[in-house]
Each structure stands twice: as C-alpha cells, then as structure tokens.
Amino acid sequence: MSPPPFNRLLLTGAAGALGRQLRPRLKRLCSTLRVSDMAELGSAGAAEEVRPARLEDAQAVHALLEGVDAVVHLGGVSTEQPWQPILQANVMGVVHLYEAARKHGVKRIVFASSNHVTGFYRQDDVITPQDPVRPDGFYGLSKAWGENVSRYYFDRHGIESACLRIGSSFPEPKDRRMLATWLSYDDLDRLVTACLTAPVLGHTIVYGMSDNTTTWWDNTSARHVGFRPQDSSERFRAALEARQPTIDLGDPASIYQGGAFVRTGPFE
What we know:
Blueprint: E1 6-12, H1 17-25, E2 30-36, E3 48-50, H2 58-64, E4 70-73, H3 83-104, E5 108-112, H4 138-157, E6 160-166, H5 178-181, H6 185-197, E7 203-208, H7 237-243, H8 252-255
Parallel strand pairs: 1-2, 1-4, 2-3, 4-5, 5-6, 6-7
C-alpha cells in the first residue's frame, strides 16, 4: 500500500457542518489529521490531533500551522452576519492563516470560499471564475478578500491555493435554487481531494457544485484540477418542483444567484 500523500494535514472549521463531513474522510490522505475550531471538537480519534484556536489570534494560528504539510481551511463565519465577527474571523483570520503558512513553509491551501462572492449575478447568467466578483453581503465580501489574499500569497510566496466557491452542500437540495447550486457531500470530498492531490494546482478558483443539469457556473478553467462530480440534483427535481410549483420573479432571492443572502441585513 502506498503511503498517504501528506504527513500532517490541517482541517480548520472541523466542528462545522462540512468540517464534520470531511473530518473522517480526510484521514486517508494523511498520517496525522490536525483538527481545529473554536467550537467543541470532541476527543481526538485515531491518528488525530485536536487543536482549538481562534482565527483572530495570530499567535494561536501560527502555532496551529507548525509541522503542517497542507491545509483545508473551512474555518470562519459561514453565514451573513454583522461586520465585526466577519472582520475578525474571515478577514484578519485569513491573513493570519496565510502568514503562518508562509512562515512554516506550507505550500498548499484549500480555501473554502463561497458562491456568495458572485451572488449578485442573475440566475439567467452563466459565469466563470474569471468574471468580476459581485458579492451579495459582508460574508461574500470577506470571501472575495480571502481569494485576493490567496492570490497575493501565490504570486509573492508561491503558496498554491484552490478557492472553492462552494454552492449548497447538504444531504439533498432544499429548494429549486439548489437544483443549480447543490454539492453532495461525496462530491465535496472529491473536490477537496482533487485540489489537495493535483500535481500542479497554482492559484485556482473552482465552483463547488455537483453534476447538476441546471447550472450557472462554468468550471472549464479549473479542469486541470481533475475534479469530476458524480452526483446530480436532478433526481430531486420532481419533488422540489411539486413543493415549489411557482417562482416569484419579483423576489430578489429568485432573481439573483445568491438567493436569500441578497436580502439579508442590514444589521443595525
């Protein structure tokens, strides 16, 4: 049996919904999986290290990256919120992470960006990662910032990054919008694995979606990563359309790709 590609792999945000899915799956790729979050992580499993840390704490993040070969960064605020928590975790935190990676010689990061970086494109648009960003809130702005940070650290310091503009990753799509944005947990695993193991990653932006019939995103520019989704939202279509037979085209959530995020806030 071949040895795993990494000695020590770091998963941040390991207590979150997607982190809990990836935590057991990533172990096949490393000898030791280091998991981190500010929430409860439970006891360390076999071949695991549990390291709680807050992303806004630069010293804690520096220690977190010591001895790490690669990072899957899911940590941070994952919904639209007031600015201050997003600033702390998603703006300051991503700089702390990349600075720590630079200092410790970590050369590959898989960064959980979001489809909300381009949430103000219309649902009748088909866009590519090369199209200008159009964030739909503070959360989307923070992820656009993270993508720019990762670009800078690749250009200046050679740290390869994949920015995953994750759509809607749930056991199944919840509404008709998610017929386009759904990403199964198995396809999420395939996407992260492809980005970790691609021979040449460079700086890549890729939308995280399954092989859905309806799609707003063209991933052609990321084909060098080797991600091939195998699931599709199509098997849920009939039930979702029966449950939601009409679409209110006067509702911004039905017009723009960001869905309900385009009308969340302001927080005053």
